[in-house]
Amino acid sequence: MTLIGVKALHPWLQDTGKTGLNRVMGYPPIASTEDYWNNTCKILLGTAVNQVITHLQLNPPTILLFTDKSLEKLQQKPSHTQDVPRPPEEETFDIPIPQIPSSFPELDTMTLVEVKEALALLDNNESIHTWLVTNTKNSKISAGMKTLDKFHHELVENNCNTAKNHLSQQDDLWTLYSTVQTQQQQVSATHEQIRQLSMTHAELFGIRSPEEQPRRIVRKLRGAEREAFVQSEEYGNHWLNDDDTTSTSTTTTDDFIQGFMATRKLYHTRAATIERLSSTSTGNVVSN
């Protein structure tokens, strides 16, 4: 086996000199005697090549020279000439904050009493503001200090106004919250009603195909139709029996006709509904 295209240093490689090729001579089965390779090790050629390649990949040789120009071009790293994208610029705010001075000439010209007064003011922002206002014409007070104090009070005032605005909307927020809570309860109650109605629907019609539901409706209407018919017949028979047995019946003929027509009308209405459903259903109506 020979490593071509390069001249390299590796314990398994040996320079052949004239040809300038690197032969693999350090692989143990090859480095042994010819009898060992032919009769003892019993390694297939493909297995030997795979073991050599794996070893050179895990323990790469030191490349001295590329003898193959095309291989040398493949090993060249591509130059990164593309511009590196810049990170987005941070958002800037136009805040009039003065730069920190490197020296404080105002302190150099202050008396000891003035310095002590200034140090006492550091623990109280309101006192600093009052002092700056009362000493506006004092040339020893820099414009930066005045600007920073003005910015500080404007910021406090804006925060205070924002807080007051939030507090003014607190009642409206609680009212909106109560409304939302009430509507949520209504929605929950409506969902419960839908669930109960769905259960009732399932009990009435069962889990059946759409073609079977009209038949179940017709069967129930037939029972209601017979009930209305029996009710009207019993109403008529009761009035006739009362008229035959007692002469002091309180039910007049007009009252009987109105009551009988109401029960009979219910019977005919149910019969007409059954006829319409039967004509629109796809199959024959199964009667009881």
The main sheet comes to:
3 strands, antiparallel
Distance between the terminal alpha carbons, to the nearest Å?
Answer: 96 Å
> How large is the share of residues in beta strands?
5-15%
Helix-strand makeup class: mainly alpha
Arrangement of strands in the largest sheet? 1-4-3
Mean pLDDT: 76
Number of strands: 5
- Number of alpha- plus pi-helical segments: 11
What gross morphology would you assign? flat
Radius of gyration: 53 Å
> H/E series, N to C?
EEEEHHHEHHHHHHHH
How would you describe this protein?
This protein is mostly helical. About 60% of the residues lie in helices and about 5% in strands. It has helices at about 30, 35-40, 45-60, 70-75, 105-110, 110-120, 125-135, 145-170, 170-205, 215-245, 255-280, and strands at about 1-5, 5-10, 15, 20-25, 60-65. The strands form two sheets. It has a three-stranded antiparallel sheet with strand order 1-4-3, with no helix packed on it. A hairpin with a 6-residue loop joins strand 3 (about 15) and strand 4 (about 20-25). The longest helix is centred in the middle third of the chain and has 36 residues, at about 170-205. It is flat, with a radius of gyration of 53 Å. The two termini are about 95 Å apart. Mean pLDDT is about 75; it is low at about 280-288.
Strand and helix map with partners:
Blueprint (H helix, E strand, L loop, with lengths): L1 E2 L2 E4 L3 E3 L6 E3 L3 H4 L2 H7 L4 H14 L3 E5 L2 H7 L29 H5 L2 H10 L3 H10 L8 H26 L1 H36 L7 H33 L7 H28 L8
Antiparallel strand pairs: 1-4, 2-5, 3-4
Helix pairs in contact: 10-11
